[in-house]
């Protein structure tokens, strides 16, 4: 076979390039485009006639000058490069490309140009991003599930679930609706995007006429792209006011015994994919797990109550009766020691019976308190136990919270008796409506609370503290040389069972701060106890704060620096950062300072409220993996800052003067005139500055210097031309 002629070879190559799916782009040594195949036109939108002979930078612009510079630098060093870049098409849209470039040389080793293979990987990267997003969603769902299993806060689990669904499905409205007793109505128990008062107050029909009712009847996921046109159900008035267009709804709990529904609504028409419906159902399953746990605990507590009642009856009817007969027999036989032992056992047994029967007691609080004091009088016949103030107590029963207060009083009395040397114990109570104060004082030997070794009395005191904390009450203990006084202050109203979260707002923008305060104070379990526009204002308001909501950019410093002071005042207090910055380094730095969570200022207020409640409940907003990543970023940021400051230290006084002049907007000619040097010298100084700072333009150098306060932006006040 005879060899191909040069023009035949060129034609063969052109034909081959035309058939490739990948773009082939060649340039000469000056980066002017010399090869541009049809695939290049398909990917970038430019025809060969539009690009041939033009500089490559004028054709395909990569996102960020750094990518282009990295490419050119690597080619100059190694002669080849492989990287993934994002480029801009002719129509302005973006395309992800995988780029393989090699350097072309002549027989003398001189560079004649470069040849690059560009592969469109937009779809692949989109798939990767989708998989990564799904993995993050699954991780968040897993974390939500762990919270539901580890805690007993059903409301917190539902709040977290609706926030997660709103974020994951990009839904403006989300809701958990619970079936009310009777099965005819549902009430909104948790939600994102609803007006104040809707959660806990808005109801809808549980019949098939409504979307949520239809979901219960269907027993499975219900999706509607156009709610107004959907003939399967109607929209309740409360939902209609929020103008939903599309929706997806699933059942929470078992189909035969559901708790309610979890729904997501969008105000613009859209479809919900199968994956999104699965996410919705997974979140509903987590809520169902928390609901079932709550139901199981209620059933278990009911069983325990019945068992305590049975034990109390058996002890009273059999054990105590048998003990009484034994005591009578020992007295007839004249055994004083045995009689004393049996009397003591009898007193202990009566106390146990009283304690077991507390949960069944539905009588007035004052009546049960008198019984409690009588039991302790019988337990310690050698100690004078007095009760005062019971006549002013309301003649009512305070439910489980009242029972818990009685247990605190009983534990305090037991603690005083076990001290061993008290001769008098006084109990005094006072009440104002549902607010109750109790004082238990004894004349036994006091003790130093900070120095006393762990023992029976201090263990009892710890139990008293734990019970008081569960009641959200205040406990004061005063131990002196000749006696100990314990005071408990508690609210016995049912509403007080929800802990009031005291919030401090630290934000320099008054309008945003006041709007946030107004939104938070609409919730009965949140109280805004302070406003601060600066670090100095905030430091004087840290007492009695449960959660501080802090802005990072304050006029007198970095907001996260306040967290250390907050923890010093109360180690249990938490900090939630609200910031307008999207910089991950800022988030990392805040977490490194001790922030329990960081939210964007554009976050919906319902999410902020849910975050505050979760922090108050002792939950975490960030997973251990997220915290580790952020702390790693913070470490990298500190290392980068150290390197940056070291680079700035290399600048000479003259180079700093040049930077200041550039910040004023002067060009090289005017800088030369001001400093009485040549323009060439000015440019040399600028080149040195760029090299020392490792940047590629004057703008980058100025941003670098501004970040560390080396230069400042001059005031723009004054007349034009000044």
If you had to describe this structure to a student in words, what would you say it looks like?
With 722 residues, the protein is an alpha+beta fold. Helix content is 48%, strand content 21%. The strands form five sheets. A six-stranded antiparallel beta sheet has the order 2-1-6-5-4-3. A six-stranded antiparallel beta sheet has the order 9-8-7-12-11-10, sandwiched between helices. The chain is elongated, with a radius of gyration of 37 Å.
Summarize the model shown.
With 722 residues, the protein is α+β, with helices and mostly antiparallel strands. The chain contains 23 helices and 24 strands.
List the helices and strands and how they pair.
Layout (H helix, E strand, L loop, with lengths): L5 H14 L3 E6 L4 E4 L1 H7 L3 H4 L9 E2 L2 H14 L1 E9 L5 E12 L5 E10 L1 H29 L3 H16 L3 E7 L5 E8 L10 E3 L5 H8 L3 E3 L12 H4 L5 E8 L4 E9 L7 H60 L2 H22 L7 H15 L4 E5 L10 H20 L5 E9 L2 E8 L13 H15 L3 E7 L2 E9 L9 E6 L3 H11 L5 E7 L2 H5 L7 E4 L2 E2 L2 E2 L3 H8 L4 E6 L4 H9 L4 E4 L4 H12 L7 H26 L3 H11 L4 H8 L3 H15 L4 H10 L15
Parallel strand pairs: 13-14, 18-19, 18-20, 20-23, 23-24
Antiparallel strand pairs: 1-2, 1-6, 3-4, 4-5, 5-6, 7-8, 7-12, 8-9, 10-11, 11-12, 14-15, 15-17, 16-17, 21-22
Helix pairs in contact: 5-6, 5-9, 6-9, 6-18, 9-10, 10-11, 11-12, 12-13, 17-19, 20-22, 21-22
């Amino acid at each position: 076979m005879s060899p191909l002629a040069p023009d035949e070879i060129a034609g063969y190559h052109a034909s081959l390039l035309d058939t490739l799916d990948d773009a082939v782009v060649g340039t000469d040594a000056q980066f002017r485009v010399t090869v541009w195949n049809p695939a290049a036109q398909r990917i970038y939108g430019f025809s060969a006639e539009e690009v041939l002979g033009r500089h490559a930078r004028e054709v395909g612009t990569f996102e960020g000058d750094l990518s282009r510079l990295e490419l050119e630098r690597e080619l100059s060093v190694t002669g080849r490069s492989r990287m993934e870049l994002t480029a801009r098409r002719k129509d302005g849209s973006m395309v992800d490309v995988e780029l393989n470039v090699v350097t072309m040389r002549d027989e003398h080793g001189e560079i004649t140009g470069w040849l690059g293979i560009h592969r469109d990987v937009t779809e692949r990267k989109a798939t990767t991003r989708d998989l990564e997003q799904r993995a993050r969603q699954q991780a968040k769902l897993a974390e939500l599930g762990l919270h539901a299993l580890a805690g007993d806060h059903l409301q917190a689990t539902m709040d977290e679930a609706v926030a997660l669904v709103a974020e994951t499905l990009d839904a403006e409205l989300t809701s958990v609706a619970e079936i009310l007793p009777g099965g005819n109505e549902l009430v909104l128990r948790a939600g994102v995007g609803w007006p104040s008062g809707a959660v806990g107050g808005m109801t809808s029909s549980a019949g098939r006429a409504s979307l949520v009712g239809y979901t219960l009847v269907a027993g499975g996921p219900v999706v509607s792209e156009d709610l107004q046109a959907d003939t399967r159900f109607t929209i309740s008035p409360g939902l209609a006011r929020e103008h939903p267009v599309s929706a997806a709804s699933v059942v929470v709990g078992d189909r035969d015994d559901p708790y309610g529904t979890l729904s997501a609504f969008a105000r613009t028409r859209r479809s919900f994919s199968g994956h999104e419906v699965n996410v919705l159902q997974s979140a509903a399953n987590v809520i169902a797990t928390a609901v079932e746990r709550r139901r199981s605990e209620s059933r278990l507590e009911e069983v325990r109550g019945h068992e305590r009642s049975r034990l109390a009856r058996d002890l009273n009817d059999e054990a105590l009766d048998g003990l009484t007969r034994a005591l009578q027999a020992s007295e007839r036989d004249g055994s004083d020691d045995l009689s004393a032992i049996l009397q003591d056992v009898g007193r202990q047994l009566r106390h146990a019976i009283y304690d077991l029967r507390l949960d069944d007691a539905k009588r007035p609080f004052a009546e049960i308190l008198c019984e409690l004091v009588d039991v302790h009088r019988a337990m310690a016949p050698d100690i004078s136990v007095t009760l005062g103030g019971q006549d002013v107590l309301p003649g009512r029963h305070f439910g489980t919270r009242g029972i818990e207060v009685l247990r605190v009083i009983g534990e305090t009395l037991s603690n005083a008796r076990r001290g061993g040397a008290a001769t008098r114990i006084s109990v005094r109570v006072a009440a104002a409506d549902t607010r109750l104060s109790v004082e238990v004082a004894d004349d036994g030997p006091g003790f130093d609370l900070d120095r006393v070794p762990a023992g029976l009395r201090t263990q009892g005191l710890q139990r008293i503290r734990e019970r008081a904390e569960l009641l959200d009450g205040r406990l004061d203990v005063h131990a002196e040389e000749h006696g100990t006084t314990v005071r408990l202050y508690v609210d016995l109203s049912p509403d007080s069972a929800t802990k009031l979260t005291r919030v401090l707002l630290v934000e320099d923008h008054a309008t945003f701060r006041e709007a946030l305060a107004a939104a938070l104070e609409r919730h009965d379990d949140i109280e805004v106890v302070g406003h601060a526009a600066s670090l100095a204002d905030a430091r004087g308001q840290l007492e009695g704060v449960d959660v501080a909501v802090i802005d990072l950019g304050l006029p007198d410093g970095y907001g996260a620096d306040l967290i250390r002071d907050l923890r010093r005042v109360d180690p249990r207090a938490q900090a939630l950062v609200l910031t307008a910055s999207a910089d991950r380094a800022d988030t990392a730095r805040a977490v490194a300072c001790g922030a329990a969570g960081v939210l964007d200022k554009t976050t919906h207020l319902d999410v902020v409220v849910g975050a505050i409640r979760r922090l108050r409940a002792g939950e975490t907003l960030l997973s251990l993996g997220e915290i580790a990543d952020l702390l790693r970023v913070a470490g990298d940021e500190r290392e980068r800052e150290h390197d940056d400051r070291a680079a700035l230290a290399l600048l000479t006084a003259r180079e700093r003067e040049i930077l200041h002049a550039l910040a004023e907007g002067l060009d090289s000619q005017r800088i030369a005139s001001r400093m009485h040097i040549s323009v060439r010298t000015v440019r040399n100084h600028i080149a040195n500055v760029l090299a020392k700072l490792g940047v590629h333009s004057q703008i980058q150098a100025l941003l670098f210097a501004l970040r560390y306060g080396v230069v400042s932006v001059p005031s723009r006040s004054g007349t034009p031309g000044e």
